[in-house]
Amino acid sequence: MKKYTVVISLVFVLSMALSACGGGGPTTEFDVLMTDFKFEPMEFTIPAGETITVNATNNGAVEHEMVIFNLGTDAGDVFGDEDEANIYWEVEVFPGETSTTTFTAPTEPGVYYVTCGIEGHLEAGMIGSVTVVAAE
Ligand SMILES: [Cu+2]
Questions:
Q1: 48: CA distance to ligand 1 center in Å?
Q2: Distance between Cα 49 and ligand 1 center (Å)
């Protein structure tokens, strides 16, 4: 009887682990919801060098952007003209619209900074990250 309980527990732990992998593993396609003023979710994991499809929906009242920065760079406290040179990829979405676009993931694994380039949105909390993992 005791052994039976242990087996059930193990199955439960394993299924939890597997579902966690399904949610957090690298993906070549992801959805991002933009609101006033955040990204949902805020973190994404993608495989290096692959073509990534992004379905970005803006549920806010104003235009939003998803801007991915080059590795090792960020916008600091305020997004400004000096940050343009550090942009790896970006997409703009108008309120109430969904934009499906693709980009090629960086080849270098690491955590890439994400923000919205519209004035004041970074300060309001539109910050996220894209984690690039080595392709298998
Ligand atoms: Cu924004």
A1: 26
A2: 27
pLDDT tens digits for range 40-70? 999 999 999 999 999 999 999 999 999 999 9
The CA 120 to ligand 1 mean position distance, Å, reads 8
- The overall pTM is greater than 0.90: no
Contacts of 97 (CB under 8 A, 6+ apart): 57, 58
Q: Calculate how far, in angstroms, residue 10's C-alpha sits from the geometric centre of ligand 1.
A: 44
CB 67 within 8 A of CB 87: yes
CA 92 – ligand 1 centroid, Å: 9
What is the token pair recorded at 135? 């392709």
**With the C-alpha atoms ordered 40, 85, 77, 59, is the resulting torsion angle positive or negative?**
negative
**Is 71:108 a contact under the CB 8 Å cutoff?**
yes
